[in-house]
Amino acid sequence: MLPNTGKLAGCTLFITGASRGIGKAIALKAAKDGANIVIAAKTTQAHPKLPGTIYTAAEEIEAAGGKALPCVVDVRDEQQISDAVEKAVQKFGGIDVLVNNASAISLTNTLETPTKRVDLMMSVNTRGTYLTSKACIPYLKKSKIAHILNLSPPLNLNPIWFKQHCAYTIAKYGMSMCVLGMAEEFKGEIAVNALWPKTAIHTAAMDMLGGSGVESQCRKADIIADAAYSIFSKPKSFTGNFIIDENLLKEEGIKNFDVYAVKPGHPLLPDFFVDEYPETISKEVEKQQAPPAKDWKQYLQQPRLAAGAVEETFKILKTALSEDIVKATQAVYLFELSGEDGGTWYLDLKNNGGYAGSGQPSDQVDVVMTMTTSDFVKMFSGKLKPTMAFMSGKLKIKGNMALAIKLERLMTQMNSRL
Fold first, then answer.
1. Please, which residues have CB within 8 angstroms of residue 43's CB and are 6 or more apart in sequence?
2. Which DSSP symbol is given to 7?
3. Which of 174, 326, 331, 401 could share a disulfide with 366, CB 3.0–4.6 Å?
4. What DSSP state is assigned to residue 85?
5. What backbone torsions phi and psi does residue 195 show, to the nearest 5 degrees?
């Protein structure tokens, strides 16, 4: 963990979406220095699945050693932003750091994304970041610290990051383009940077998106908080950067990243928009080594799909089903497979001890997955991870995305039973 130095003592941070998750983690890190935190977020009453309000966050910030000003702010509302900025200046005398953290997400393709979700993502992510920055800039110009930090990704124009969730990518890249433009516009006056995690970060929102058990593949929000703290300690000349948390902390001398893992030693889920080899993420997927295999797995992983391999896979799946897996999953999956030995197949993990086979299931389908028979066999034999298949465009998903994400954990469980 990155130690606190006290550099933010008395400084005022305006943080959108600070009632929980990454925003709150950054707030608590700064609060340990004795910073003033403006909690600019919507939540005034606890959500049953998303705990935390601007008031509970304020209590935690005060307990950590900081001063808090909870403000009801929907970043889609310019007046609410202006009112919060005015209150912050009246209470604390100015603004030294702005963190644009508020964000909306919908990992759906073009035809599956309702217009209201498009509008929400554009309004919260791009427009909200722009308007909040605009409102804070006059006061940031007067600060000796003067940092704007957007929680947004590097501008990676690999089409892979657009094809499955075009609207979300556009909205997040809008935040990054604010960095590109404002860093140049206010060079010498305000440092403007973007910060993005290398791996998935565990938050209450991630639990909703990824389902139960996804936390083992994530890092804690503390890694983002430490990286943000490092950025705020840098001069105004450090600007226009698209920073990956792990890379920056390595430069700070951090060597043990297990301290940030929810489950140390467990494989981590890579975050969107970050690939080691942007030109060929698909090749990286193919390079993944399968776990030690028994004879049936070796049979399924032959270079050419053996006749009946899909049917054989489902036979093996049936032997791996259990009431525990059904209880933990509660979903019906339909697979539309193209190529040799393809067709329609299903995996019912909602009823009794589970069912698997060809054709249509008896219960309502929660998730439809479309892919080739070859990739399907690779996926269920451990050679191709569902997340990477989706990211690389080999797997198309319709339906409940949270239940779809559960499939990767499910496969790990099934492989361990065989």
1. 19, 20, 50, 52, 53, 54
2. T
3. 331
4. H
5. -130, 135
What dihedral do alpha carbons 20, 22, 25, 30 form, nearest 10°? -120
In single-letter form, the type of residue at position 282 comes to: S
DSSP run (H or E) holding 69: strand 67-72
The amino acid at residue 221 is A
CA dist 206 and 401 (Å) reads 12
For residue 277, give the 3-state DSSP assignment. Answer: coil
* pLDDT computed for residue 261 by the predictor: 92
Dist CA 101 CA 129 (whole Å): 8
Q: Which of 204, 302, 197 is nearest to 245 (CA)?
A: 197
Structure tokens at 64: 């950590």
Question: Under 8 Å CB-to-CB from 209, ≥6 apart: which residues?
Answer: 105, 107, 401, 402, 405
Residue 88 to residue 296: CA distance in whole angstroms: 64
Q: What residues are paired with 71 via a beta bridge? A: 40
Summarize pLDDT for 48-87 with one digit per residue, the tens: 667 789 999 999 999 999 999 999 999 999 999 999 999 9
Q: How far is CA 385 from CA 198, 267, 331, 377, in A?
A: 18, 12, 19, 11
Encoded tokens for 164:
């499955």
Q: Above 80 in pLDDT, residue 362?
A: yes
Which backbone phi and psi does 48 adopt, to 5 degrees? Answer: -60, -30
Single-letter amino acid code for the residue at 352: N
Q: What is the DSSP letter of 217?
A: G
Task: Provide φ and ψ at 179, rounded to 5°.
Answer: -65, -50
Q: What is the arithmetic mean of pLDDT over 308-318?
A: 78
Go through the chain and tell me how many residues it has.
418
Residues marked as catalytic: 168
